[in-house]
Amino acid sequence: MVSLSILAMVLAISAAGFRPPSDEIKLNRKVSEFISRVSDARLKAIRSHRAVGIDVLDCGGELLAWSFYPDGTAIGPEICLAEGDRQETLVLSSLTGLVSRSSRDE
Description:
Blueprint: H1 2-16, H2 23-48, E1 52-57, E2 63-68, E3 74-75, E4 79-83, E5 86-92, E6 99-105
Antiparallel strand pairs: 1-2, 2-3, 4-5, 5-6
């Protein structure tokens, strides 16, 4: 009887670990991957002495482009990334080519 109780507790605890990742975790992963792409593109532009661009589909399904220049500057619109009911807007600094984040829930 005791062993069945212990087995039931172990199964209950392990079943909780099999839940899929939340929308917030998925969105954070998506944003982190995009910021990594941005950093790579900026670094490539600086090292190659040529402009480099990246494209991304935003929340509305619109294809948007960011461009990075050899002097570290950049140009591009705000980009919205979404996962489920979570959204995050990414803003590109034209002067530094760095990205800032601003979250909001729908």
